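User: Some background: our group keeps a shared notebook of sequences we're curious about, and every so often someone picks one and asks for a predicted structure to add to the entry. Today it's my turn. The entry only has the sequence so far, pasted here. Could you supply the structure so I can complete it?
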Amino acid sequence: MIILPIVNKNRILNVEVRLKGAEKIISKFPVEDLDESDIMINGKKFSESPFSQVKDEMAIIDFLRSYSILYKRQYRVSTKKDPESDICDIYEVDLPPKKVHDALDRFYVNAVLDMQKEIPGSSKGKYLSLEKMGFDEILTDERISQVRQILSQVDDKGKIALYLEKSGCLDLVRLLDFMQIFDCTVIREASISEEEFQQILHSFEKLNTKDTKSLNHYYQMALSNRDIYAKMSYLYKLIYDQPFQLIQSESQKKNLQFVKKNTPLVEEGLSVSVG
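Assistant: Of course. Here's the predicted structure to add to the notebook entry:
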């Protein structure tokens, strides 16, 4: 389970991140053609490909894109084996979108690795930092200001994508589109008020232990994720004139199923050039 800690309205939330296009199709069932913690697409296994020799984890997404050029089919991911039954679970997953930025690819790869490292019937969390993945490199204040300026000066929505592309900022729109493939759900009862957490952190600082360092690192990560998420939210509102609803609670997700969204800007003019 990959978790995005984030500060929101004076509370620290823990958000579980999953790929929307990932479905467990075989549960606790031995599969002869796919070993544990492996990936298979169009009959080709990651473990038997040249990509498996590359130490960089980004080789996973390079493998997926390389072996899906001709046939755009879903691929399969196997988990680790259950130590008691010696069998693993299998996920069927949608292909990743076209490359936008390394930060998004790292985010995607983390979600795939999470499935590969999963043990049937067991769950272990791993924290994610948007800054560490490189989101701050693409979501700079200067580039967001450029988008704001273009949107304020161009009246013809059909030409906005052209101006964004000329300014080198069209990838910011693609970033927002890419993020829609992730399901980000607030974990119930796994939040704490920021004030209360600061009090706990202050108490541990007097001890000066490893726990102090871990708690402070977690808090700084939550603050950084808040700042980067705020930039995405601002950018989304700027472009689509709608609230950014990537992170939701279970109740919010249920309510949104009955809410009809307004027509986004991408359908009015950006769709021709964004794809």
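Suggested note for the entry: Confidence is low (pLDDT under 50) at residues 259-275. The first strand starts at residue 2 and ends at 8.
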